[in-house]
Amino acid sequence: MHHQDVPVPFGRIRRTMPLAGFTARAAGGRVIAGLREKAGQDGAVEQFHERTAERYAELLGHSRGVLMKVGQIMSLLDTRAVGTGGFWPYQKAMSRLQADAPPMHPVLVHEVLEGELGSAVEHFAEFTEEPMAAASIGQVHRAVLRDGRRVAVKIQYPGVAQAIRDDLANAELLATFLRFLAASTSGVKRDVKSVAREVAARISEEVDYRHEAATIAAFSELYRDHPFIRVPEVIAEMSTNRVLTMTYLDGMDWAAAQQADQDLRNVWAETILRFAYGSFRHANLMHADPHPGNYRFNTDGTVGFVDFGCVKVLPELQRWRQVAMNRALQEGRKQDLRDIMVLAGYLTADSDLTADELYQWQSELLGECMATTPQPVTYTADSINRVVRCLFDVRDTNHPVARMTAPDDYVFAARLQLAVSSVCAGLNATLPVRAIVEDFDGAADPVTELGKKHHAWARERGLPSALDHHDHP
């Protein structure tokens, strides 16, 4: 067996299993065959999954490769609620590995900083060695520059970029893992090629901190002088491929925000909605990582957004079609909805999926903003479960998702919908969602105070509206 050295926080360990070994279709085949063989035995399937999950957890160790990153991407979805729940043991095992991974030793942190920034490290007046946050690719430290600015410094784990690139070089690794995920949750064979391509593209961008710096700059310019959305500014001279320095955003974390007054939580939820769905209406940016840990909540109702590693830049035609699909849905134009979905690449014109079926599916998926839903709407656990049923709980071939193909440009739209619903439910938010969506799309004047402030800001900035054609490829 080939052994590969992988640098990790405390030095180097031996990766005892080449991840390429996981790509063999036989691995997934053995799992599914085992499930079928044991299906008649009480509790045997669950035990089989748990044993297999522990084995993979042991083999993956602290390697922080692509599968660990996919585990993080899946973290917002409680897969116990999806289909058969068969993926839950694997998600739990990967989450434990991520939580148990130690932070970088302070000596290594300083080695990385000095190696990346050289003499620029002298710009730090203060640097807190204890990380304020850690994830699958890097960790974040507080610091103060000599000019007095407070900053957050994101430092990439040594070796993680190469480990991920090595994994991505094996084209079958991600696809096999996603096939296994689909089979273990539903038993239904699904086309995962587009999902694998998009996940690989976003992960490969995420290990390049210069790319994230450029993305932050794009969002910072888009939301310049916004009344309630806050985006950090990049400190370019203190940023490299492996170190990203940005201005520090104050605010409560997710746990504290959930304990705040309900009226304030409603304001925060609307702010998050407007950021998540407004970014691709005013520009072509889809923030594809709307995780609660990426927000900073303030008592004045503002929200800071602090992680921009996973962002999809939508081609203009696909961006416009996304909004046009929403308008057709809201206005009950069923055949138009189907026609646009055909043009967008979800299905072929001769598909047996009817306009009525697509309208019913989309109406359930986006239930909070439909005309038949009493307003305002309170987001609850049922909101999340409904989205999960629509997007992931595919246990038979008649489910619309099983009869469609996710176009590459829209792969992360599903995650965005689920994540935003989860955040709003976590805040127990009550919002006039339909009215917010109508003013999003320029179909009606805003009725909320935040909506009025947002539209006044957008007019002053001269930003295009949702159905305007943007000056973008």
TrEMBL record:
Keywords: ATP-binding, Nucleotide-binding, Plasmid, Transferase
Domain ABC1 atypical kinase-like: 96-328
Cross-referenced Pfam families: ABC1
GO MF, any single term: transferase activity
InterPro entries: ABC1_dom (IPR004147), ADCK3_dom (IPR034646), Atypical_kinase_ADCK (IPR051409), Kinase-like_dom_sf (IPR011009)
Family as reported in the entry's similarity comment: Belongs to the protein kinase superfamily. ADCK protein kinase family.
Protein name, as recorded: ABC-1 domain protein
